Amino acid sequence: MNALVHSGGDSLRAAANARLIALIRAGAVALGVFLSGFVLREPAPYELYMAGLIAVWAVFGLRISRHAVPLLVLLILFNIGGFISMSQLADIGDIPLYLAVSLFLAFTAVFFAAIVEAQPGLLDVIFGAWVAAAAVTALAGILGYFQAFPGAEMFTRYGRAAGVFEDPNVFGPFLTLPAIYLLHRMMTGRAGAAFLSLPPFIVIALGLFLSFSRGAWGLFLFSAVMLTLALFIHNRRGLIRLRITAMCIAATVLAVVGLLVALQIPAVADLFAQRAQLVQEYDAGRLGRFARHAIGFLLATERPLGIGPLEFGRIYGEDTHNIWLKALLAYSWLGFAAYLTLIAWTVAAAFRMLFRARQWQPYLLCTYIVFIGHIALGSVIDTDHWRHFYLMLGMLWGMMALEQRRQAGLGRMPARSGE
User: Fold this and answer.
1) Distance, first Cα to last Cα, the chain
2) Of 137, 172, 251, 308, which is the most exposed, with the fewest CB atoms less than 10 Å away?
């Protein structure tokens, strides 16, 4: 009897310890994702925290499976291309720090891929922390834009909401995936979950609007439309389709009314009229964004080893504002080839599993749609050091690895009699 009691006590302690470890693990990941919403300079608190987290996790058993090895190899090749490009410079200045951040962000993508593959339940933690970070930084941006308290302008840049970001053009895209995830919950979740998703969605959407980032506006609209179409196609039940249709109509009406109300504020109306123009003066000028793109691609054909990270901006006064051109010039042809392969591989492999009935399918759908939008956005904005881009990349590869493991497991299962 005593032996049985002792054995039962050991089991309870083991279960309690396992639960405590799981909570610590989830909290550590949540804090890391939350910190990704506060990037005023490099290195940001996110880098410092994640460096420690990855190191501790590695000590206690971080495992990179064979499914994540292509991600690791391609990201390392991309960064090797950066060091090759740096070799073309006589004065490297602060370039080593820039490349160190690039390499570190690559490791964060591999880290998130590994932990998602090992524990798919962490996807809920990641998305919850991302929504919290987006709501906090969006609220800061809103308060800053309307100068709600003395010193609130610290949360704005160039008269636009920036939250706790250095650039409104990064702040806006950072908010997009949480907004799309909340939209997904409102369209498909239970009534209670849909109702609770509405307040943070409104805050995040307003912050995104006040960023006055044309790229962020386009990214959100593209993602929302694609999500709606995907859900409408995937869900064959008439009730779900009716709900999606009704929510689309309601969202459109609310958006129009909200926009009309916002435009009654002169400062908002003036900045909106300026930012709503598809082509700005700095886009189409003699040495505007598009002219620099043409010059840069011609230069890249002559410089297979690149010209050095950040060198394009020093020569022409502005950075490339194009991730493909950035890859060619700052990471050499090798880096460009690795990046192109990585993006094509990710898009193709994730698409094949997009509508399969899996517990992680909602996360996959939202992440994939916003990731596609970021690829398109990269043609007019440099997404090189966007922390949340690497987070999305890691999540996609983690879910791809989960699917590969599932398929391998099914392939080993013996066929049932009669099949």
Assistant:
1) 49
2) 251
Give the pTM. Answer: 0.90
What does the pLDDT look like over 13-45, one tens digit per residue?
777 777 888 898 999 999 999 999 998 777 788
Two tokens at 328?
């060619």
Confidence (pLDDT) at 314 = 86
Nearest to 57 by CA among 103, 100, 118, 13: 118
**Which residue in 155, 135, 180 sits closest to 374, CA to CA?**
180
Rounded distance between C-alpha atoms, residue 144 and residue 72, angstroms:
39
Among positive and negative, which fits the CA dihedral 292, 296, 297, 302? Answer: positive
Residue 205 and residue 371: Cα distance in Å, rounded?
A: 18
Q: What are phi and psi of 157, to 5 degrees?
A: -140, 130
Spatial distance between the Cα atoms of 174 and 165, rounded to a whole number of angstroms: 10
Angle at 189 between CA 187 and CA 194, to 5 degrees: 75
Q: Match 């410092």 to its residue by tokens.
A: 48
Q: CA angle at residue 219 from 343 to 73, to 5 degrees?
A: 15
pLDDT digits (tens, 9 = 90+) for 289-332: 677 888 888 888 889 999 999 888 888 877 888 999 999 999 99
Q: Which amino acid is at 217?
A: W
Q: Identify the residue whose tokens are 């050095």.
A: 308
Angle between helices 2-35 and 122-145 in degrees, nearest 10 = 40
Res. 185: pLDDT tops 80: yes
Whole-number percent of the chain with pLDDT over 90: 55
- Say if residue 336's pLDDT is above 80: yes
The 8-class DSSP code of residue 415 comes to: P
Burial class (CB in 10 A: 0-12, 13-18, 19+), 24: exposed
**Secondary structure letter of residue 153 according to DSSP:** G
For 196, phi and psi rounded to 5 degrees?
-70, -25
- Write out the H or E segment, with its range, that includes residue 392: helix 387-412
Task: Give Cα separations from 2 to 10, 12, 14, 15, 16 (angstroms).
Answer: 12, 15, 18, 20, 21
